[in-house]
Amino acid sequence: MRRDAKCRSNIDMKSRKFKTEWLAKTTGAILSTLAISNVSQAQLTNFATVFEAAPIAAVELIPPTSTISYVSIPTNAPVESTSLRLEDLEAIALQCHPSVQRATALANAARGRALQVGLRPNPTVGFQGQQLFSDGRAEQYGLSIGQDYIAKDKLAFNRETVLNEVRQLEQNAVVIQQKVINDVRIGYFRALRAIHQIEANRQLVEISEKGVAIAESLLKAQEVGRVDTLQAAIEVESAKLQLRIAENRYQSAWQDLAAVCGQPMLPQQPLAGDLFAPASKFDFEEEFARLQNQSPELFAIVASIDRARMNLRRQQIESRPNVNVQGLLNWRDNGTGGDPNAGLAISVPLPTKNWNQGAIQEARYQVCAAEQQLTQRQLDLRQRLATVFERYSNAQQQAESYRNIILPKAEETLGLVRKTYEIGELSFVSMLTAQRTYIQSRIAYLEAVEALRIAETEIHGMLLRNGLADF
User: Fold this and answer.
1) Are 214 and 422 in contact (CB under 8 A)?
2) pTM
3) Which one of 52, 111, 230, 279 has the largest count of C-beta atoms within 10 Å of its C-beta?
4) pLDDT tens digit sequence for 379-412
């Protein structure tokens, strides 16, 4: 018992700050977001009418106050009238993605369960006949009526337990929505990177074809041998092959983007956006503090803790007896001369051996497990943030190095080597090396920028990904 008390004391300090923001901000927001479900707002409002049958002073539904917002990632590029913006893709995904629809349906299903578990049981009515076929000497014909009376506290705790499950599912829906948004952003940046890689490989083809022309002119002037022209031709074919690979990569990136948008048949369109926009600046401790205050994963765990606590209280009152009342009205009793009579039976269970002690013990340790899950998820978030932050830092440094140092020097080197080769002072191998170094540097720069954008998206988006994964 002391250990259980210690667990409950520890979680009071850990979850208090999450509860306030959760109730004030997130629940109202997600209710608004889930408005696309089949359960109308009027139906939700009618909960109050149903509650009057089993009064629950502490239970109320929080009305929607706002819509959920996401961190905006600037693209800093002119928008063509036929181009798809990142915001357009996000809107399509939120409307069409099956994971979002499923999370919405699960939350609405739990709302129906919350309504059902708080309803009082229906009365029973039936016909009762006794001493039948006694040749009119002792037959009894009557109407039986029965009713189970459940303590209203039990119904209240039933409903409050499921309402906490509703809040947990609402937070899970926020998690799914953020995963979908992040998946769309990552797919968008990968598609942009594929487009730029096609451009880089086309430039490589052009450079290689110019190398062939230079080699052939030098061969005619008898300044180089046929080996140079053969190597130049091989390089052209290799560049064309890399171009086809880049085009296939773009096709794959577009199919991936269409899938995470929930529209697998989305036709290919130009994308508006700048892959090379300035990078965001992050501080590790600041981002971890933001996760602790805003992560829907933590809010969902806090809701599960409240659910476990409410379930414990419900199990502790289970031993309170319910009352069963049975009434009988005989409108004809031949055993008493045919006059009507009546009977009444009232019964209650006696908790002499079973006072629900096993379920209480289970519920108590479920509370402890839920409390420990909060600390576990906080540590997990810090570990995940450390991994993503490492990728972000590496990609940022690589992108800056390629953009400011390596690419300018590689481009200058290629120009100087080409001029020197044209006058016959360098071998074709030297020019070939310069060409490959330049293109490889461009592709490495694209890879670094793509990795930077993905890491930025994960940090902005609460480290959430894979919205199509089962949940």
Assistant:
1) yes
2) 0.80
3) 111
4) 999 999 999 999 999 999 999 999 999 999 999 9
